[in-house]
Here is the input.
Amino acid sequence: MVFHGDYEVEFEIYEKTEGDWRSKFLGHMVGVNPEDAKARWVETHETSLERAKLLDALYPCEEWK
Here is the structure.
């Protein structure tokens, strides 16, 4: 997937469960790419570095179709 740097996209933020394959949906955050959206989530929600390692930002599936 290619993201253009001139606009932001809304990503879904998930938290992985340690020692498990499942993850929990936390909400949405905008960013120019997944790393930017995750960094904004961490800053906005004052997330610890330990917990931040468990977070993933994904482009919403329903918009891929």
